[in-house]
Design goal:
four-stranded parallel beta sheet; eight-stranded mixed beta sheet; alpha/beta
Length: 429
């Protein structure tokens, strides 16, 4: 198919410039002002809307196989496309756990059948994703996996993590680590060990349960030389530890989520949609994360999109499952509340959603240059809407951002020669 995207403001090295983009057979073949529509099968009149490279999220839960009542690969990737994403990395909290080539293949088969965007799954680090015990056959899984993660559980023993790093290094892959020391967390603690927890008599999750394992793993990285990525950091100590490690040459990157950049414990309500792991922490932690994003300590913004059923999220802070959805709202919220307000340059937000995750996890595509595979998303940056979970394409609706205003709305997402999301007329195609 030959498609012309006409009259857009194309993101290019930190700024938006008027430009047309011509795609033929799934690749960008021309870009410039006033391109001819001759021979085009479809022409999209963008009217000054912004064109960005397709976003990449290296931390999503698609729940299939095993938990399709929460999400499916079909619903989750449609939701991702609505958020402007053309690539995601899927976490291994599944049944069966992708801890063998056979189990990973079961997931890959569904991806091949149902995904509307690129999906690269993680394999687990340990058999059964238990955070302890035997390691998976890393060499056998490395080629098909985005990397290795026991997300949802920290690897308990340093000796286990060290051996995993040695093998992952040998396989030229990467570890994406959920850093959580359960021995420091009171049983059933649902939120940060801060003012809200103390005021309401709720057991709290201390920040050390996150930064302690990060510090341990950094020492193992020094020793092994493994490529290492830290999932969903949430506290100021983690930012500083990672900042120092990078300055010392450790091969480490990290991510945080939109909710940690935009919210803190002051925003908590006794509702399941405010319960996630790690939890919302203090305002000083949020500010440190913002500073870490601006100075490049934080490489990626990842949503940790974690859908659950309404029943699982309807039991307040103490009784609800951990996890919130966010892949449909990430860029609109970041643009509206960080870029428009002048708190974070658009270049840092876009890099953290595009180049940085793609380079670190070796994901295909994502550019807007001639010759690139088409991977782009179009946003109306002059919209006036509010976050409404009833509109979500995801099966999960639990978002702490319900009712927040947004001034950026996705109108179109393109991957190769496919229109994977079309909202040009105000309705999903």
């Amino acid at each position: 198919m030959r498609m012309l995207f006409k009259g857009g403001m194309v993101y290019d090295h930190g700024s938006l410039s008027p430009m047309d983009i011509l795609v033929d057979s799934g690749r960008i073949v021309a870009r410039g002002e006033h391109l001819s529509a001759e021979g085009a099968d479809r022409v999209f009149e963008l009217g000054g809307m912004a064109v960005f490279p397709g976003f990449a999220d290296v931390h999503v839960h698609l729940r299939e196989p095993g938990f399709s009542y929460k999400e499916t690969i079909a619903s989750g990737t449609r939701a991702a496309a609505r958020g402007g994403y053309t690539a995601v990395c899927a976490m291994p909290n599944l049944n069966p756990v992708p801890d063998s080539p056979e189990h990973l293949q079961a997931q890959l088969d569904i991806i091949r059948r149902d995904a509307v965007i690129d999906v690269k799954p993680f394999a687990s680090i340990t058999v059964g994703q238990k955070g302890e015990g035997d390691l998976v056959d890393i060499a056998a899984l490395a080629d098909a996996a985005a990397g290795f993660s026991d997300d949802g559980r920290g690897v308990k023993e340093a000796s286990t993590m060290r051996e995993a790093m040695v093998q992952v290094k040998a396989a030229d892959s990467i570890i994406s680590a959920h850093c959580e020391d359960m021995s420091l967390i009171p049983r059933g603690a649902p939120i940060h060990d801060g003012a809200y927890a103390k005021a309401h008599g709720i057991p709290g999750i201390p920040s050390e349960s996150e930064w302690g394992p990060i510090a341990r793993d950094i020492e193992l990285c020094r020793e092994t030389g493994c490529r290492y990525h830290v999932c969903h950091i949430s506290c100021k100590e983690s930012v500083e530890i990672i900042r120092r490690a990078k300055a010392e040459g450790v091969d480490i990157t990290c991510e945080t989520g939109p909710h940690y950049l935009l919210m803190c414990q002051d925003d908590l309500r006794d509702e399941g949609r405010f319960k996630m792991n790690p939890p919302l922490r203090d305002a000083s932690d949020r500010d440190a994360l913002l500073a870490g994003l601006i100075d490049g300590t934080i490489d990626c913004i990842a949503t940790d999109h974690a859908p659950h059923s309404a029943e699982e999220k309807g039991k307040g802070l103490m009784g609800s499952a951990m996890g919130v959805v966010g892949i449909e709202t990430a860029f609109p919220l970041l643009y509206t509340h960080l870029v428009e307000t002048g708190r974070v340059p658009i270049s840092r937000v876009i890099d953290a959603l595009t180049d940085a995750p793609r380079k670190r996890f070796r994901l295909e595509g994502g550019g807007l240059d001639v010759g690139d595979r088409a991977s782009l998303t179009v946003f109306d940056l002059h919209a006036d809407e509010t976050v409404n979970p009833d509109d979500f394409l995801s099966l999960g609706h639990a978002t702490p951002f319900e009712g927040w205003p947004v001034h950026a709305v996705c109108r179109l997402t393109v991957l190769g020669d496919e229109i994977v999301y079309d909202n040009m007329e105000g309705e999903n195609a």
